[in-house]
## 1
Amino acid sequence: MSERGTSLLSIEGLTKRFAGLTAVDDIGIEVAEHEFLGIVGPNGAGKTTLFSLIAGEQRPTEGRIVFDGTDITGWPADRVAKAGLVRTFQLMRPFESMNVLENVMIATHQHTPAPHAARHKALDVIERVQLGRYATAMPASLPTAALKRLELARALALDPQVILLDEVLAGLVPAERAPMIELLRTLHGEGLTVMFIEHIMAAVLALSERLLVMHEGAQLALGDPREVTEDPVVVEAYLGEDYA
Amino acid sequence: MPQHANAAESTSAASPWRQQARSPLLAAGIVILALAAIYLFGNRDSGLVTQSIVSGLLLGGVYALVSIGLTLIFGVLGVVNFAHGAMLTLALYFVYALTTSAGIPVYLSTLIAVPLMFGFGFLVQRLLLNKLTTEGSHEGPLLITLGLQLLIVNTLLMVFGGRPVSVPGSVDGSLRVFGAVATYERLIAFFGALLVAALLTLLLRRTSFGMSIRSVASNAQGAALVGVNVGRVYAMTFGIGAACVAVAGGLTAPFTSLTPTVGESFTVLAFVIVVLGGLGSVVGAITGGLIIGLVQTIGALYLPGTGALLLVFVVFVLVLLFRPQGLFGVRP
C-alpha cells in the first residue's frame, strides 16, 4: 500500500486465526486523518473481529497496527481507548447499575480526573448526542435509539481521534436512522476520523468516503463507494442478494 | 450461583424498583416482629433479651465489615474468596505482633495493619489471580484462594503456634444501653465498622475511582473500552476487601482469642451474610451482618453451644427459599 502523508491509522497484514478458522485474513488499510471509511460484508466476514483487533480486545495472530505514528499492536484495550482509538458495540453494553450521566463520566474521568470537570464534560457530550433529557435515567429504561446514542456518547467522552462504529444504525426504525446519520455527519464534520461497519447500504453510501468490502475475513475491495458497489466481484459475493 | 442471578432477573424484570424497596422493609419488619414476639412470648427474662439484642447488633457490625470485603470481591471480580477468613486471621496476628512485640497500642496497630493488608490483597490479585479473573475463570481463582487459605493458616501455625493468644486490651470499662452492658471495646468495634462501611459506600458512589469499580462490576469488557484499567481495578478491589478485613481484625482483636484457625468461622458466616444480603451488594452485607449477629445471640438464649449457628443456617435457608437473590440482590 502506498504511503499517504496524512495516514492516521495504518493496518498492515492484520490476521486473526482461531482454531481452523481465519476470521481476519491479511487486512491492510491506511486510514487517513478525518476520513470516513465504510466497512461492509456479509455476516461472518470478520468486520467485528477486525474492530476487536484494532481496539485491543483481541491480539492479532499476525500483522501490525500503527496509530498516529505509534505501534499499538498488542496494547490492552484500555490503553488503546485512552490513546484515542475507541470502538462502540452493535449490541449496546451500558453499565446497568449506573445512570446515563455516570456511564459517560466513567469515560470522561480518563482524561479529566477532577470530578466536577468530568461531570461538566460528560453533560456536554450528552447534549452533543441529544440525550439531555435522559441524563439521570437508568439504561434499562432507555429506548433502543437512546441506548445507541449512549454508546456513542461513551465513546466520544474519551476525546477519540478515531472512532470505530459497529452498526450504530442496527435496531433503529427508519425514522430514527436519519437523525443518527445526521449526527454522524456532524461529528465527522467536527474532525473525527470514522470507521463505520454498517449493513444499511443507503447510510453507508451517504456517509462513506471510501468503502472496504470484506468477505470471509479478507479484503475483497477497497475504494470509492459507488465504484466498489458496482464491482461485479463485490456484487456477486455480497450485494447480489440484498442490493439488486 | 447462576441460579441466583437468574432468579433476580426474573423477579426484578417485572418492576425492579418496587421489588427492591419492598423486600428490605419486609425484612426489617420481620426482624422487629420476631424480636417483639421474643419479648412477649419468648419465656426469657427481658433484661437478658435486651442484652442479647445489644450484643447481637454489636457483633453484627463486625460481621458486616468482614462481609463487605467479601461481597465487594465477589461483586467486582466474580471471585469467591475462600481465603477471606484466613486474611482476617492474618490481620489479627499482624495486630497481635505489633502490640505484643513492639508495644504499639491496638488501635494504632490496626492503622498500620490496614495498608499492609491492602498491599497483601493487591499483590494476591495482581500476581496470583488477575490472569485467571481476566479470562473469566471461576474455578481457578476459587482453588487459588482455597490454597492461599491453607498457606496463611499453616504459616501462622508455624510462626505463632496453635496455642490461643490474646491482644492486650486498651480501653476498659463499659456503657449501659437500655439496661444492657456494652463494653467500650465492642462499641468501638461496632461504630468503627459502620464508619468504614459508610466511607466505603461513599467511595463507591461518589468518587471517580468508585465509579470505575462499579463499571468493572457491571461490565469489565465495556469498562476497558472506555479506558478503565481493569486489571488495576481488580487488584485495588481485592486490596480494599483485604483492608476491610484488616479493620475488622484490628477492631475485634481486643476481645478475640487468637488461634490460626479463628477466621474459619468468619469465612462461613461471611458467605452466609453475603448471600443473604445479595451477592455484590454492600448495603446487603451490612443488613445481613446485623441480622446474623442478632440471630446468633438470640439463638444462644434458647439453644446450647453451637446450636445458635444452626439457627443462622435455618434463617439463611428460609431467606433463600423466599428470596433467592438475597435481600438486596439486584444483579440484572
## 2
Amino acid sequence: MALATPPATATPASSASPPGTRKSGTGLPPVAWRALATALLLVAACALPFAISNYLVFQLTLVIIYAIALLGLNILAGFNGQISLGHGAFFAVGAYTAAILLDKAGMPFWATIPIAAAICLVAGFLFGIPALRLEGHYLALATFSLAIVVPQLLKFRGLEHWTGGVQGLVIDRGDVPAGLPLNNDQWFYFVCLAIAVVMFVLGANLLRGRIGRAIVAIRDHPIAAASMGIDTARYKAMTFGISAMYTGIAGALSALLAQFVSPDSFSFFLSISLLVGAVVGGVASIWGAVFGAFFIVYVPNWADQLTKAAPWAIYGLVLLGFMYAMPQGLAGLMRLIGKRLARR
Amino acid sequence: MQALLHQIFSGLANGGIYASIALALVMIYRSTHHVNFAQGEMAMFSTYIAWTLIQVGFPYWMAFALTLVFAFVSGVLIERIVVRPVEDKPILVVVIVFIGLLVIVNSIAGWLFDYTPKTFPSPFPDRPWYGSRYISAHELGMIVVTLCMLALIFTFFRFTPLGLAMRAAAQNPISSRLVGIRVGWMLAFGWGLAGVIGAVAGMMTAPIVYLDPNMMAGILLYGFAGALMGGIENPVGAAVGGFLVGVLENVAGAYVVGTELKLSVALAIIIAVLVVKPSGLFGKRLVTRV
C-alpha cells in the first residue's frame, strides 16, 4: 500500500501543472503535495485494517514496527555515518525490557514502552561512548561482536530467573480497552501506528533542525564540523543513544505483538535483517525506513516460496545488487522517478 | 595447577586457530584497509570442500592440498569479482558488501551440505601425546601446523620477490605501480593467501567443533579480537594476539565467567582494546592529517 502511494501522488503533482510551465506556476507548492500525500497515506493506513484479514493486520503491524527500528538505524548509519551491525542487540534489549516488566512486574503494556525506550537510550549512549573513538571498520567490528554476543547473554543461566533462559518468556499484553469496536489485532495495530507516527514526526523534526544539520555535518566532514563548533563526541554518542532508543521501542512493540520473546529471535541475522532493510529502503532517508520495513517483512516470504533452501542467499544477492546498482535504495529510486515525472 | 595447565594448553591450541584467522584478516587489512567479515564463512566453505573430497575417497593430505588450491582460487575470484567494484566506495558500502558475502556463503553452504553438524577427521592420532595429561595430539598438531604456517608466510613475505612485491603494493600502491608491480593482482593474491590461511584454520578447527555452516561465527569474533589486540596492521602481532586471546578465553571461561559466556570475553577484549589502546599491543599509532 505505502509502496504504491508516493509515486501515485507524485503524478498528480506534475499533471496539475500545465505542460510547458514550471511546476511552481500553478497548483499547490510541492510541500503541500507532500503533506497531502502523507495525509492520504495515513487515512489509508487507518482504513486498511478493517478491510483485510487479521493475519494481514498482524503482518502490517510488523511492518510498522520494523519501520520504527529502521528509522533508528537510518538516523545513525545514514545521517550520522556511523555503521552499526549490532542493532539487533538494542532491539533485543527493548523486547526483553518490555517482556520482563510485563511478566515480572505486572505493568500494563503501555507503561513498558517508555521504560524500554529510556533503557535503550542509556544503553545506546553508553555503547556510543567507546564507539566515539572508533570509525568505519572498527565500529562495524565492535557492533558486529555485540550482535553475536547478545543472544548468548540472553541464554545465560545466571539471568534465567529474569529472561526465562533458552525458553524465553510468554507474555500477555491484555485485552482491548472496553468500549472500542476493535479486535485485539486491530487495537494493537493502531497502537503501533500511533507510536510510529509520533516517532517519525519527531525524527523528521530532529533531522530538519539545527541538531539534524550537525548530525549530517559530522558524517560529511567531521573535522570541518568540529571546527564549526559542533561538539562531535557529544553529538555522536547522543545520536547512538537516540538510534538505539528508536530500535528499542520497536523491540518492545515486537515483543508485545508476538506476546513472546526468546533468545533465538534476536540472533545475529536480525541485525543483518535490519541492515538489509535500511540499505534497501535507502539509508539517508526517512521514508526509506518504511520501504525497507516492507522489504524485510515480505521479501523473505517470497524468497522462501522461490527457493525453500536459500532465502538468505537471496537476501545477500539483493544486498550486493543494491550496493552496485542503487546505493540510494528504494527511496532514492522513488525520488528519481518523482523528478522524472515532475520534469515532463 | 594441572587443570590450569590443561586450560592454558588447550587455550594455546584454540589460539592457533584464532591466530590464523587474525592473520588472514590482517593480510587483507594491510593492503586494502578492509575488514573482511566474510573471512570465517570462506574458511567454513573451504572446510566443506575438504570434507567432500575426503568423503569421495581422497587421502587426508591430498584433500588438504586440493582444498588449499580451491581456497586460493576462490579468494582471488572473490576479490576480482565482488570486492573490486566497490574498492573506493564509502566504508558503509564496503562493509555491507562483506556482510552480503557472509550471508551468501553461509546459506549456500547450508543449501549444499545442510545444517546437520558433521564429523571431520583429524590427521593426528587420537590419543594423548606421549602420555601427557595436558594436551591431546590433535591440539599439539594444531599448534604445530599454525606455527609452520606462520613461518612459511613470514619466509614468503621476507625472502621471495613476489612477497616483496605484495608488501610494496600494500605500502605504497602508486610507487609500486610506477616500478611495474601489478597492484591489482597483488591485492587479489593477498585475498587468495588469506583464503588459504583461513582454510587451514577451518580444517584444523572442524574436528573439535564439528563441521556446520555456523561454526566460524564465534571463531571469527576471536580472530577479530586477536587481530585488534596485536595491532591490526601487524601480522606477527596478530598471531601473538590470537594465541593470547585463546588462552584468555579458555582461562576466563574456566575460572571467571563460565563456558556459557565465553563469547562475551571476545566482546570485552575487543572493546577494551579499542578503548584503551586502539592501535593494539604491537601496532603503530595512526595520525590523520587535516
